[in-house]
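Aim 2, interim progress. The first record below pairs a target sequence with its structure tokens.
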Amino acid sequence: MGRGSVVRRRVARGSAAVVAVSVVVGATAAMPHAIAQPTADVALEWYDVSAATVNAADIPASAQITKNRAWAISWLAAARAIRPELATGQPHEYEQAAIASAVHTALSDLVPSRQAELNAALARTLGRIPDGPAEKRGVRIGREQARFVLADRENDGLDPESVNGEYPPGEPAPGVWQPTPPTYGAAIQAGSRYAKPFLLDDPAQFRLGPPPELGSERYRSDLAEVRALGVAGSAARTDEQTRTAEFWEQSTQEAYAWVLRSALEQSRQPLFQRVGMVAIFNVALVDTQIATSDSKYTYARWRPVTAIRAADDGDGDPGTTPDADWTPEATTPLHPDYPSGHNTYAGAAEAVLTALTGAGPDEAVTIGSSTAPGEYRTYAEWSQLTDEVLDARVWSGLHTRTADEAGVVLGRDVAEHDLRMAFRLLR
């Protein structure tokens, strides 16, 4: 899809999406009561507070999962605070106070450096709510649920230090991951596979099968594609492909935070369902990244840059020659090729958004990119993002197509499981 293009969505929301919403966020929730004074969208308000807080946190890029964890904890607390058995029969003021207090309490614990900003945001929300029993109860329940979720997730192995735990690479050999240029730094995200999932029974529950054998037809075609289209300055790559590659060098957590915000803003569902959407999205993305680390470090498959530079180094592929100067269009992240983390993220995000909103938004979503300033892309269906991410990581020279396709499958599998099991978190 080209820059700025819009494809109008003609796919109606199906019965499967309705069932998924009922399972995940309780379709029995009552519609909010109208209140007399001018109102703000408390979900969108605290979504923006959450984004500002998490983005300002001292969390390295190598621990993206820690950011999703902060979102998951705070919004799961909010969803629990306004679940039907607590909110039914309560005025709208209760829900507003409960959401604000739950997210405020959780983020105050997780990002204490933003305490002043969080306190100011809470004061703004509570200042709109008339003093009374509903407000007091909302504040109390919101805080209680935040403390409950925080306690449950204590020492879950998703702090940056644990996520990036030490990983000694195997002895150099064909197919075995080794630190990649230009820094040849230590592996990152290897510790995520030991973390406590939210809903997976085990990090290995959806472990992928092995990547193609060295020298196989698929292996050879994968490398041939990335060698030609993923090399820096490739003459075979079109300008559009280059722009797509640059656009999706950005963090998937940052990109999809904007996508999810658009879905939240457009949603006309009851407040509980909207808050639940943010919660289960981030829960599923935490579990997906844990599962990604499990598969990555189980197989520890070398990156294209390593494979291409050592093409005849006993890898069973005598039909190619090494290219010691081959350099990918983008800098290779310091973790194995299989599966692609960008694509596990995209696959999981697509699965959650499709289950909860249908095949795409009511109005096409436009997002930008920190790695392609001034570039904006518009999407009318969630699958369009996945398709672009899949191609982009090949055109960047970072992954084989097999690693990208397997990543999408893994992400979808984890997300679909978490959607089915989400009721466990909201009891």
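The second target in this work package is listed in the same format:
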Amino acid sequence: MNKHLIAIAVLGASLALSGCAEEPAQQSNQQHLQPIDVAEVLVKPVQNWHTYTTRLEAPEEVSLMPRVAGVIEQIAFNEGDTVKQGDLLFKLDARPYAAVVASLEAQVASAEAALSQAQSEAKRAVRLTERKAISTEQAESRTSMLQQREAQLAALKAQLIAANLDLEFTDIRSPIDGVISRANITKGNNVLAGQSVLTSIVSNQTMYAYFDVDERTWNHSFSQVAAADHQQVVMQKVGQSTFAHTGYIDFIDNQINAATGTLRVRARFDENTGLRAGSFARIKLAANDITEQVIVPDKAIGTDLKNRFVLTVGEGNILEYKLVTTGERYGSFRAVTAGLKAGDVIAVNGPARVGPGMPIAPNTVTLDTEGVAFTLSPTAQHTLMAKK
């Protein structure tokens, strides 16, 4: 009897120890589950972007050349300054031209005196002819002389106007508003009319950006766009992380370039905050159609050979492999056009530390999209709701 009691006691102790051992093991397995950030996918109204490279151009650009020859007497601007139309930039030695003006003024005065005498003789000839005191031939000669004096005076006055213009052109003024470059020719040097480039000026209040859109893209996404619509665009300069400059399309060429299969388009930027002609830039143009698409962090998407996938959280917090088709990128987020639906929960950081089939300890986080532009303008996000 004692032997049976001892056996039962030993068996009970063994079962108790076994149960105690299994419970810590289960707790240990739960404690070793990988904690992973997860979030529910977003659904946002978005537009498809098209990006083009370009260089900025000034609407007005002048290579300043003198209209008359002469020696530079004064440079009246600071290099790199902003100038206004009509500002004095260079002054040439005006004395030779002033002398020509003075000479012609004297010749005009002499011609006016000669004309006055010819007018008097012509009037006298009319009276004498009526009394038959002079011959008709003499009267006609005086009339002809009057006409010659009138023509000579008119020619001299025209020469005087031209001479005054030449004198005026010795003051070389800015033909446009803009930013002036350095002086290519300095004080004391002789310059030639229409040949010597003194400096250059570019307008700076507005900038143009020309870019070429391929025919297929234009017909698919922008066929209804007209220049008068002022289709909005955004621009990013070299070294910038965001598309900080907003402009609009103000010119669309009248034909497709048959050699390249592209259409020339121009964007205009009126608010010039540090834009310079010749700068390299990237233009983003958005299609008019606004659609709702699933949005996920770009880092949540993994690559498997030619496929793209995300890891979704399934039953029992087991990660599942989901093939996806991706669309446009918006900041640190990307649109998913196929493979996910609203309500799906994904591993935010992708397959960096985990893989499909793994159980995880989910840590739910919120996807922050503040400051991310999913449409070209903030008001465009309401367009989708208005259409519904």
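Residues 43-56+206-387 form a domain with the Elongation Factor Tu (Ef-tu); domain 3 fold (CATH 2.40.30.170). This observation will shape the mutagenesis plan for the next reporting period.
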